[in-house]
Design brief:
This protein has two domains: about 140 residues, ATPase, nucleotide binding domain (Nucleotidyltransferase, domain 5), CATH 3.30.420; about 170 residues, ATPase, nucleotide binding domain (Nucleotidyltransferase, domain 5, 2-Layer Sandwich), CATH 3.30.420.40. The two termini are about 30 Å apart. The chain is globular. The protein is of the alpha/beta class. α8 packs parallel to α9. The chain has eleven helices and twelve strands. The structure holds 5'-O-[(R)-(carboxyoxy)(hydroxy)phosphoryl]adenosine (KG4) and zinc ion (ZN). The site of 5'-O-[(R)-(carboxyoxy)(hydroxy)phosphoryl]adenosine has 19 residues, from α5 and α6.
Length: about 350
């Protein structure tokens, strides 16, 4: 099946062409620099940028894949969750293209696409569902942090999530308190490399709770009070590196320990992780170390597929078609608050 996929749920405009489980082309245009000025994503600006960028990005993906619109057999787009006006651009454009071509259209749940993205790998990227194993999956981004029990392909159940801030939000807000630019996650990752993770002892919220939930707002607050009481630390580059390493260690320890504990309890032998924070090198290394120690298989989404992209939307859409998914009627609408079950 030859499919055009579209993703515009937040601040990345992305289009991909997928054919028979292979990502033939994937184009992502990030708006991060535009939003950095405001210290976070501004929904209306995001929507306007999507509107401006959508057609050139879709054309670029089709050109790179060497396909014409007439050859497409289906169109897929993110239906939710996400910023309403941002979602609208890609979803309605996808429906319009499907209508014009008289081809099936499918709306995809953004987190469900993240959930299966660790099974996409190689060059060109290809879906490896033949290697699928029941797993516990960590989805960790700027907007979400959740644990999902994936029993079989397309059968999953959310077992826990954050009760306040997402882990990426915690990276970003802690970084802001240290005077780092938005988004601070990648900057903290880099600075932490030369810092001492044991320099400062920040709380590990819910680390020893037996549930699968997370909480990161207390950690952020403790960074705020700590810096209020020790402002001199922000005058030294090495102290900032130590702060970065210490905050990162607290976040990573909670994510890794709770993910592994859920996997052990549920008796699965595989752990997967995806979403923007999965780019974090310390998280990747610590998950690898813990999985190795416990003899679990670990599948991490490829770095290029961790942040938002249409390739994962296309791969899941195609899998759904093969699974007997019924064509979505074109009067369906976006679902900005769609929760993964
Ligand atoms: O998945 P994503 O692109 O967008 C959504 O939030 O849906 O994730 C962005 C988040 C931001 O909070 C960013 O700071 C964080 O992922 N992030 C990282 C790293 N790269 C991105 N956090 C820590 N270390 C990184 N290397
Ligand atoms: Zn995402």
């Amino acid at each position: 099946m030859l499919l055009l996929a579209i993703e515009t749920s937040c601040d990345e405009t992305s289009a991909a062409v997928v054919r028979d489980g292979v990502v033939c082309a994937s184009v992502v245009s990030s708006q991060i620099e535009m939003h950095a000025e405001y210290g976070g994503v501004v929904p209306e600006l995001a929507a306007r940028e999507h509107l401006r960028n959508f057609l050139p990005i879709a054309r670029a993906a089709m050109q790179e894949a060497g396909v014409t619109p007439a050859e497409l057999e289906a169109v897929a787009a993110t239906q939710g969750p996400g910023l309403p006006t941002a979602l609208l651009v890609g979803f309605k454009a996808g429906q319009a293209i499907a209508f014009a071509l008289r081809k099936p259209f499918i709306g995809i749940h953004h987190h469900e696409a993240h959930l299966y993205s660790p099974w996409i790998s190689g060059n060109p990227p290809r879906a490896h569902f033949e290697e699928f194993q029941p797993n516990v999956s960590l989805i960790v981004s700027g907007g979400h942090t959740m644990l999902v029990h994936v029993e079989s392909e397309l059968k999953h159940r959310v077992i826990g999530g954050t009760i306040d801030d997402a882990a990426g939000e915690c990276f970003d807000k802690a970084g802001k308190l240290m005077g780092l630019p938005y988004p601070a996650g990648p900057v903290i990752d880099r600075l932490a490399e030369l810092g001492n993770p044991k320099a400062y002892d920040f709380p590990r919220p819910l680390l020893n709770d037996t549930n699968d939930d997370f909480s990161f707002s207390g950690l952020k607050t403790s960074v705020r009070y700590f810096l209020r009481d020790h402002p001199v630390l922000l005058e030294s580059d090495q102290s900032i590196r130590d702060l970065c390493a210490s905050v990162q260690a607290a976040i990573v320890q909670v994510l890794v320990k709770k993910t592994l504990r859920a996997a052990q309890r549920l008796g699965v032998k595989c752990v997967t992780a995806s979403g923007g924070v999965t780019c974090n090198r310390n998280l990747r290394a610590e998950l690898a170390r813990a999985c190795n120690h416990n003899r679990f298989t670990l599948r991490l989404a490829d770095q290029s597929l961790c942040t938002d992209n249409a390739a994962m939307i296309g791969i899941l859409a195609e899998r759904k078609f093969f699974g007997g998914y019924e064509q979505m009627s074109l009067d369906k609408d976006i679902q900005p608050g769609w929760q993964l079950k």
